[in-house]
């Protein structure tokens, strides 16, 4: 068994900045000055550049002549993200119906049980992590490497949004149940019901995330200064 590697500094910094952008702690238009970011997080400029390039590829920042600026996420952005996700995840679950092994179904059920346990103790962050692993499993089971690549490119953005929304959910049990229901339908092999269940699930997630982002209190934008 291979030892688990710690995320690279650039990945760690990207995760921190991504979360701050999604939560609007860094407002759209904020200038992310490389030297200032490096000083704030006590890293060299290399990891800062890596992090900013990741965020640029995810549409959260943009490069201009004076450096990188926060773009953020609007309601339109969330709709675009979920339109993309629905289109690829419908393909993934349809493929999963034909290709899921007993071991993969068993792993899916283990994740659902983990989600229920997280809901029991109101562990929102752990629940969100399990939720993301459940959906990543669907892509892997589907067996299309290109779909997995697209999912992995945007999964960090969905993970940050998920962390935000589950913190507001009073009861996480209904969401855990929905994931179990989706897995039941995949095992039963009813493609039409699987697709309908997934569409309903993603539509609900889209609505909750849009509401959560819109409800955030705006804070003044500005530079990360040294």
Automatic annotation (TrEMBL):
Domain annotation HTH gntR-type: ranges: 7-73
Protein name: GntR family transcriptional regulator
Gene3D superfamilies: GntR ligand-binding domain-like, Winged helix-like DNA-binding domain superfamily/Winged helix DNA-binding domain
UniProt-listed Pfam families: FCD (PF07729), GntR (PF00392)
SMART domains per the UniProt record, alphabetical: FCD (SM00895), HTH_GNTR (SM00345)
Keywords in alphabetical order: DNA-binding, Transcription, Transcription regulation
InterPro entries: GntR_C, TF_FadR/GntR_C, Tscrpt_reg_HTH_GntR, WH-like_DNA-bd_sf, WH_DNA-bd_sf
Domain of life: Bacteria
Coiled-coil region list: none
A single MF term (Gene Ontology): DNA-binding transcription factor activity
């Amino acid at each position: 068994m291979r030892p688990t590697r710690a995320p690279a500094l650039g990945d760690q910094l990207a995760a921190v900045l991504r979360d701050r952008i999604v939560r609007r702690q860094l407002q759209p238009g904020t200038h992310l000055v490389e030297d200032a970011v490096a000083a704030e997080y006590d890293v060299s400029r290399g990891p800062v550049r890596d992090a900013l390039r990741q965020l640029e590829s995810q549409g959260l920042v943009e490069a201009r002549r004076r450096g990188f600026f926060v773009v953020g996420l609007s309601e339109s952005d969330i709709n675009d993200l979920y339109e993309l996700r629905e289109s690829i995840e419908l393909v993934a679950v349809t493929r999963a119906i034909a290709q899921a092994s007993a071991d993969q179904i068993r792993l899916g059920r283990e994740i659902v049980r983990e989600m229920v346990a997280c809901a029991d103790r109101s562990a929102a962050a752990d629940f969100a992590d399990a939720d993301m692993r459940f959906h990543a499993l669907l892509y892997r089971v589907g067996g299309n490497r290109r779909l997995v690549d697209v999912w992995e490119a945007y999964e960090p953005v969905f993970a940050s949004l998920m962390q935000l929304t589950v913190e507001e959910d009073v009861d996480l049990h209904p969401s855990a149940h929905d994931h179990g229901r989706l897995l039941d339908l995949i095992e039963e092999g009813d493609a039409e019901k699987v697709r309908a269940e997934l569409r309903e699930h993603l539509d609900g997630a889209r609505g909750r995330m849009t509401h959560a982002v819109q409800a955030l209190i705006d804070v003044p934008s500005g530079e990360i200064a040294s």
